[in-house]
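Hi R.,

Quick one: here's the N(6)-L-threonylcarbamoyladenine synthase sequence you asked about.
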Amino acid sequence: MQSICKTLQLSLSPQNVCKCFRSALKNEPNLTFKRSVTILGIETSCDDTGCAIVNNEGHILGESLHSQQDIHLEHGGIIPPVARDLHKAAIQDVVKKALDAANMKIADVDAIATTLKPGLPLSLIIGMQYGKHLSKISKKPFIPIHHMEAHALTIRMVEQVEFPFLVLLISGGHSLLAVAQSATHFQLIGQSRDDAPGEALDKAARRLKLRNILEFRSMSGGQAIELAASRGNPKA
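And here's the predicted structure, written out as tokens:
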């Protein structure tokens, strides 16, 4: 585990980061471009393998997602080594499908962006390795992404939200409340301390053996508990 975390930390070293992009954002949070800029983004922070081609106007040109949900439902929750292996098996095809959907080649994008943190280290390393591989073979800049910062900024793709703004992110074990001061500066107000809220529901669903009931078999623990509770007798 220590070697994995060290590898992720090294990904932030100067030779691996598109410094011009980050410094430009810091100096000019409302940065505009003289031409359309297209980014290929890779996300493997947990249990889904995702890729999207997005331009600086916020338009999604192509996207692809491989869900691991059915596999993890069999185990009653996410097992990190299993998630890693599924990411490894899917990532090349997911990226190809996103590029095909955008009718583009890797040479057509301007940079490769990949989730660096937070998330499951075993899952993150697969996306980082493949993103850096694409960056190397295409000679495109590589941009490591803090995906909670990315979640916070997503609203600006669809609404004219000005800085600063308050953001509440409910994202598994990394839920937080923060003030977005700019595209690169966030004031953390509070955050979850350990496990994801949904993990408690997964464990409760396992103890209740809800997967033994056919209609709950394809649901996550939280969804199964919510549906079962909605059918209960509140006066019992």
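Residues 80-101 form the longest helix (22 residues).

Cheers,
M.
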